[in-house]
Structures are given as structure tokens and as C-alpha cells.
Amino acid sequence: MPTITKIYSMLEASQHNTRGDCWIVVEGKVYDVSSYLDEHPGGDDVLLRATGKDATEEFEDAGHSKTARELMEKFFIGELDDETPPPIPELQILHKKNHQSFQNLPTKIINFSKQSYWFLPASVLGLSVLVA
To answer: How far is CA 56 from CA 25, 61, 67, 74, 106, in A?
Structure first.
């Protein structure tokens, strides 16, 4: 008999990111691991860092055992709605000093093109006069 599964958006799952209310997403499934934080062998900070994003890669990289995968089913609360886009990460602000070397690049290119703009037609005209 089919089981009814609750569907969550990534935004909704990412809002449960505290020690008392911690959800993670692994392989499109949503897990409420709040009660498991103290028991997790890797520590609660590992699970807390996994909130708000798809933690499948981190989960696979950790090399969890079959027993750990079976234990996860105890915390399963629903599936991720794959049609909603993930939340947009915050933009990183770059330091102004990184941009100073590129600030004058467009004007240098424009100045170069203005200087060489007359050179090509003059060269063609000069060559045609010589050939004639």
C-alpha cells in the first residue's frame, strides 16, 4: 500500500537550522535530526552545518555505514520538492583593492582601438597606392 509523504521546499527545510530544530536534506529526503544531535558520532556541528542546503555530497563523503543509513529512516519526515529552486546564497563582497587593477581596463582598450582605428584604413590605402 502506498505511503503518503509530506513534501517540503528547500526554503522550508533551511529554516529549521537550530540546535532545537535541525532538519537536513540527503538524496531528496528531509530528516529531522534534532533529537540525534547529541548522539551523532561526528558531533552536532556537522549536522548543523548541513542545514539549509542539500547535504548529500557531505553525507556520501563521510562514508556512512549501512547501519547509519538504516538509522536515518527513524528521522525521515518527508521529501524535497524538486520543482522549487534552492535559496540563493548570499553574495560575497570582494575587496575594492582586487578591482583596482581592472578599473582602467575598458578605457585602455577603448583608447587603443581609437588609436589603431585610423591605422588599418591608412595602411590599406598606402599599399594600394604602392601597388598602383
So the answer is: 7, 9, 17, 17, 43
How far apart, in whole angstroms, are the C-alpha atoms of residue 52 and residue 47?
11
Residue 96: predicted pLDDT: 57
What are the residue boundaries of the structural domains of the chain, listed by start? 7-80
Residue 84 DSSP class: S
Cell numbers 556541528 label which residue? 45
How is domain 7-80 classified at the architecture level of CATH?
Answer: Roll (3.10)
How many beta carbons lie within 10 A of that of residue 51, not counting itself?
19
Torsions phi, psi for 2 (to 5 deg) = -65, 150
Order across the sheet with 7-8: list the strands.
Answer: 7-8, 76-80, 29-32, 21-26, 17-18
**Could you tell me the pLDDT band of residue 30, with boundaries at 50, 70 and 90?**
very high
pLDDT in tens, 99-114: 555 555 555 555 555 5
